[in-house]
């Protein structure tokens, strides 16, 4: 009888240990170890705009390097879903709740567009995966412009904010507009009186070169191309310090002209709502590994990008902070809907 009782006690402890082991394994999966997930089918990478822009270029470059370096052993299929300043693509991804094989490239418009009322979805409706690169904006004028520096432009705007027309390829309250607003506000300009022209058909550069507007707020890549051709002057870029590289090293920053402002056009990736933590960790690690490869570094330098890796958690904190900053700015100029 004693032996039988001892056997029962021993069996009880075996079952208890097994149960504890099972609980530990479940906890590991819940915490989202990247080893708990492997993609089982092609991954759809959404660029919420047409071909050729910053979202499209970033999506295709990242997908290409991840495939070529065999960091992700599934096809990365880039799909363009333009419209609504990104809203069409976001709605598509949002409809794939819990899908671990869909992601999209994002940047500041995920904050601006919802704030100005063009989308019901904002960054809180998606799963942050990782921040990847930093790009910068540029403020340019035609080669024969009366303005030779950002301070020249600021002086004219202080005298009469409506005397200078500023064009951007985004809608009022979106990136090209707000980057410029933020910069001249830091210089003391009354930003509620600015004359902003929206060229959403992408012809901002033609309007500048055709003499229809005075200033073009645009991306660094487009500014560099026209500056190299001698068609424009770059008054300032929004980088924290001068950049390295042919032509771009000649562009002055806002800060070196006494304007205490900078703006990073960050780009990163997000997934649908309720994406598994293990999948998020898998993609986060894959992107970080990709950024260490020579293939990526060559592509990055070719586009004039700067590495700006953020983990999922860091990316979420960055988005929250940027959202609050932009909301305050947009409320001041009456653009929050």
Automatic annotation (TrEMBL):
Keyword vocabulary terms for this entry: Signal
Signal peptide start-end: 1-18
One Pfam family this sequence matches: TctC
Alphabetized InterPro entries for the sequence: BUG (IPR005064), Bug_dom1 (IPR042100)
PANTHER family, sorted: TRICARBOXYLATE-BINDING PROTEIN, UPF0065 PROTEIN YFLP
Family: Belongs to the UPF0065 (bug) family.
Name the UniProt record assigns to this protein: Tricarboxylic transport membrane protein
Protein's organism: Aeribacillus alveayuensis
UniProt lineage: Bacteria, Bacillati, Bacillota, Bacilli, Bacillales
């Amino acid at each position: 009888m004693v032996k039988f009782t001892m056997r029962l006690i021993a069996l009880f402890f075996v079952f208890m240990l097994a149960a504890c082991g099972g609980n530990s394994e479940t906890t590991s999966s819940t915490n989202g170890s990247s080893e708990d997930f492997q993609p089982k089918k092609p991954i759809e990478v959404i660029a919420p705009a047409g071909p050729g822009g910053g979202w499209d270029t970033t999506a295709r470059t990242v997908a290409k390097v991840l495939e070529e370096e065999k960091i992700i052993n599934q096809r990365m299929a880039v799909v363009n879903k333009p419209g609504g300043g990104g809203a069409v693509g976001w709605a598509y991804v949002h409809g794939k709740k819990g899908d671990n094989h869909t992601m999209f490239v994002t940047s500041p418009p995920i904050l601006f567009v919802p704030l100005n009322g063009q989308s019901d979805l904002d960054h809180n409706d998606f799963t942050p995966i990782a921040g990847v690169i930093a790009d910068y904006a540029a403020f340019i004028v035609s080669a024969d412009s009366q303005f030779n520096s950002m301070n020249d432009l600021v002086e004219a705007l202080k005298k009469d904010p409506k005397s200078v027309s500023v064009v951007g390829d985004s809608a009022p309250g979106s990136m090209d507009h707000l980057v410029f607003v933020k910069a001249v506000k830091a210089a003391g300009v009354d930003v509620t009186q600015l004359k902003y022209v929206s060229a959403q058909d992408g012809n901002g550069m033609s309007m500048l070169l055709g003499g229809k507007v005075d200033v073009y707020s645009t991306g660094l890549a487009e500014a560099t191309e026209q500056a190299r051709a001698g068609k424009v002057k770059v008054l300032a870029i929004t980088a924290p310090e001068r950049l390295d590289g042919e032509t771009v090293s000649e562009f002055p920053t806002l800060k070196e002209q006494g304007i205490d402002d900078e703006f990073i056009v960050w780009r990163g990736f997000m997934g649908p709502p309720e994406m598994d933590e293990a999948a998020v960790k898998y993609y986060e690690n894959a992107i970080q590994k990709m950024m260490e490869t020579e293939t990526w570094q060559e592509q990055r330098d070719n586009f004039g990008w700067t590495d700006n890796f953020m983990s999922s958690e860091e990316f979420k904190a960055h988005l929250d902070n940027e959202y609050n900053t932009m909301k305050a700015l947009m409320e001041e100029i009456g653009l929050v809907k």
